[in-house]
Amino acid sequence: METKFINAGSSSEGTEDSDFSAEHTDSSESDVHTVRNTRLTRSSLRLSRNSQDIKQSADHDESPPRTPTGNAPSSESDIDMSSPNVSHDESLAKELSLKESGLAHRPKRRRFHESYNFNMKCPTPGCNSLGHLTGKHERHFSISGCPLYHNLSADECKVKASSRDKHVEERTLSQRQDENRHSARQQAQTERQLRYKEKVTEMRRKRNSAPFKEQKDKYTEHKQTHGSSHEPLLENITSDYDLELFRKAQACATDDLEKLRLQGQVTEGGNMIKTIVFGRYELDTWYHSPYPEEYARLGRLYMCEFCLKYMKSQTILRRHMAKCVWKHPPGDEIYRKGVISVFEVDGKKNKIYCQNLCLLAKLFLDHKTLYYDVEPFLFYVMTEVDNTGCHLVGYFSKEKNSFLNYNVSCILTMPQYMRQGYGKMLIDFSYLLSKVEEKVGSPERPLSDLGLISYRSYWKEVLLRYLNNFQGKEISIKEISQETAVNPVDIVSTLQSLQMLKYWKGKHLILKRQDLIDDWKTKETKRGSNKTIDPTALKWSPPKGT
Question: Known catalytic residues?
Answer without folding.
Answer: 444
